[in-house]
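Changelog excerpt

This revision adds worked examples to the README so contributors can see how folded entries look when concatenated. The first example is reproduced verbatim below.
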Amino acid sequence: MFDFLTSKFEDLFYKIRNKGKLSPQDLDGALREIRLALLEADVNFKVVKEFLDNVKEKALGEQILESLSPSQQVVKIVNEEIIKMLGSGGGEIVFAGKPPTVIMLAGLQGTGKTTATIKLANYIKNKYQRNVSVIAADIYRPAATIQLADTAKKYGVEVFIQENTDPVSIAVNGVDFLKKSGSDVIIIDTAGRLQIDTEMMDEVKNIRKKVMPHQIYLVLDAMTGQEAVNIAQQFNESLAFDGIIMTKLDSDTRGGAALSVNHVTKKQIKFISTGEKVEDFDIFYPDRIASRILGMGDVLTFIEKAEKVIDEKKAKEFEQKILSNDLNFVDFLEQMKSIRKIGSLDKIFAMLPIQNKSKMLANVNLDDAQINKVEAIINSMTTEEKLKPFLINGSRKKRIASGSGTTTNDVNRLLKQFAMAQQTLKQFSGRGHRSGQMKGFPFSF
């Protein structure tokens, strides 16, 4: 997510970091590089111009703080302006005074609207402990209703389906039925088209008129860049939606849509979809996104996700083993499985505040398939070997490699990197190395 911009900003900040004082020429050069980076990232040119004007005005008019170097001051200003560009961001769901709260999702076909419907339903169900139901009002896309029904059932969400050729009637009937059945929140999955047309806009406007939803969210595909901004503008003119759900943000290395849409439409991004799993759905926090873009990680999100999946007592026991140099493969495998519940390796490292991250990890393989290989090797060890890795000699390595479908070189590499991992984990526990100076990574097969 935003890898392109992160790399560009890291390069820029590295160039100015060691300057005792920034001259007007230095500032102009930095702004020129930022301008090129943002335009290459497909950020709207009007947004880029206003952003640069604001940064320059602040940089020239602001007193350099005694505690900050000139380069740190620039980083501070750029960070503030990126947050401003992204808008005030998401927020909690505003529930109706009297249930049910009706939420309608609109958007073009292919943006991930049906998936976003289930993700939003699951989010509200778990976070607010509400009884959430969905209405399948997309009658045009093949298998849309089946997809919605199957996933809804899997996550304990009731779905209203009706054999009807009129989406407006389906929405009205669905709200009436689910209201009587005791739903706290009803989410309507409307139909999209491949492009905006009069028929589609009339349909969603009629659903809004008949149902009168409390909130309308536009679902946008982050991968479409500035086109997503154009789509948002057209929908806003006809539908006046309340907020945006931005999908596929994990695949958006540039970030043009996310950085432009608020400024152009004056509508906030409320939620972001960051993966294929239903749980990969979060409130949009502009300050956290800005931190990621500038290569400073997103520790708060990491902590929130970790708290949901990692047992605190076991984590403390694990830390003690690290500090006492008593870590073995049994502990290692258990913690590795817990960490994987947070997300894929590339997502985890994106949230960690590591300096020059893009360069440091350029030659590191963050493919989860490599973790599968590591697990296979460890699972092929005997209990004694897992507890006492130093016992693994040449013949044992051959047996482990054969049992795991790998090579003795793979086993050797794991054993070597296991020792390096101990040092890395000590660093993150606050001992052994200064924070941010990773000396090795245990999974770079």
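The second example, added in the same revision:
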Amino acid sequence: MNIENRITYNPLQCGGKPCVRGMRIRVADILQMLGEGVSVEEILQDFPDLEQDDIRACLLYAARRANLERLVA
């Protein structure tokens, strides 16, 4: 699976927030855990359906969102 395709959107799931591979695991939750110092290994233990590439996809998603250019009027 392509790393970019691991992040999915469904308006009927998790309020339309980006999730990992259609599961009810939100990208924001993974990023928050990483930001709070939870290790990748701990996250993978707590969420056995996740794969290491899913976590990389969350980080890539965040990096791309942070790099969006905004027009200022």
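Reviewer comment on example two: The chain has one domain: 3-66. Residues 3-66 form a domain with the Arc Repressor Mutant, subunit A fold (CATH 1.10.10.10).
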